[in-house]
Specification:
single chain; two-stranded antiparallel ribbon; 19% helix; ABC transporter domain-containing protein; P-loop_NTPase
Length: 47
């Protein structure tokens, strides 16, 4: 994905524009609370 990002209706940036390449069958997404993990996974699955 090129420049994947998400901004909520209230203007809060859930995921800053980021280039993403996943080349493995299994990956781990780790980060602090509120870092955008669920937002990223939602973008990947189209929700």
């Amino acid at each position: 994905m090129d420049q994947a990002g998400h901004t909520y209706d209230d203007g809060h940036v859930g995921l800053a524009p980021t280039d993403i390449t996943i080349s493995e069958l299994r990956v781990a997404v780790i980060g602090l609370n509120g870092a955008g993990k669920s937002t990223l996974l939602g973008l990947l699955d189209g929700s």
